[in-house]
Amino acid sequence: MTNQVKNRLILIVAGMGMLLSTLDTGIINVALPFLQHEFHTSTSTTALSVVGYTTSLAVLILPLGYLSDRIGKLKVSFIGLLIFGLGSILCGIATNILSLIVFRIIQGIGAAALQSTSAALITTLMDSDQISSALGILGIMIGLGPILGPSIGGFFLAMNVWRLIFWINVPFAILGAICNQLLINQVNENSENRRFDFLGSIINAFMIIFLLTGFSLLSQKTNFRSALIFIIGGVLCGFLFYIFESKSTHPLINFREFSKSPKIWLFLAQTIIFGFTSAVIFLIPPFLFEKILHIGVGTTGLLVLGAPAGLVIFSRISGNRNDGTKNQKFSLLGLLIISIAFTSLLLVRTNWPAIIITGCLFLFGIGGGYFQPANIAAIMQSGSLNNQGAIGSLQRMTQNIAIASGTAIGSTLINLTTPNLALGIQVNWLLALLVVAIVLIADVVINSRDKPL
């Protein structure tokens, strides 16, 4: 197998895994009202099909990333493709809501294996001169999920073939598995025989479950106190996880290694901010277009594509322009562009053409396209080659939690400012701008300290 063929196969496996796992995070959302009617159940019960997927994904992504460093990333990715494909088949043949929820949890397990290995496959197995470009393509796959998920789901619902929402994954999972198996037969991976960190995995699971539960309850006024209790519990579990992992001889995340590259904390903070602001940028515009500007659902669906379209286009551009030495520069540039996008959204008036708002969303996408591949690369470079699976899964887990928090806080602000929806939207834009500004200031301060006098 030539290096060129190897690189392409790795890119197919990593990209396919990321696309499938992000696609199915949102593809079912448009189908929830239909499934509620199909299975004669309540809205809250139907929503568990989403919660089950996201929870199993978030809980297992870190342990599976750690496991991939022990037994091989290709093996974990291959198993993930099989589980995800099987879960997709089972979801498509579900006959009641309980079975669908269980099968979605199985899908989430497979998705966790895929997301935990995607970046690590690229950084450990591809030729070094191809890594930056490949991470740019990985950014495209992350951006395509929000675009294709609702669109594909809506199309199949319109055709009255809702089961294809899940079955469409199967041929792509098979293709990925075939490419993966070819690589397993040809590529030797470096692995490390370490004891599995069961206690750390349990603490991590409680942290994730508490946080996700708290965020899901946050937007409901009657459950606000319970939401805060769960979120505080999740934060406390996070501190316990850090203390335990810092002392463990075989930790899921080697926090002691972070002392060798302390900037990883800044990179992770940037990941959190980008996840938070991405959630806001996908949550708020439909309210603005439909409720304030009174634009139809179909047209709104096109107008909100500005952000993901910009992300897809400029992830590729930035990946090609980055030779691996511009990660911090591109991350900072991306965040600056994002801050300009939110400033522009704050200045938009309701009597302006809707296309101007789409332009602001596209500007956010440009920033995200520069930021995300460079940020992933910077985080991966901060860890040793023996821990790339764990580091990559930490990045994805952190961003997934940030997206959940952004969605919850954004919804809460909308609810708290009702019936003044315009105020709620402005507050969301302002909050997003402030958090980006904070991390930009932190970046400048830290980098100025590192410069020699």
UniProtKB/TrEMBL annotation:
Keywords in alphabetical order: Cell membrane, Membrane, Transmembrane, Transmembrane helix, Transport
Family matches, as Gene3D superfamilies: MFS general substrate transporter like domains, Multidrug resistance protein D
Major facilitator superfamily (MFS) profile domain location: 10-450
Transmembrane annotation, as ranges: 9-35, 47-67, 74-95, 134-158, 164-184, 196-218, 224-244, 264-289, 295-318, 330-348, 354-380, 429-446
Annotated compartments: Cell membrane
CDD domains: MFS_MMR_MDR_like
Protein name (record): MFS transporter
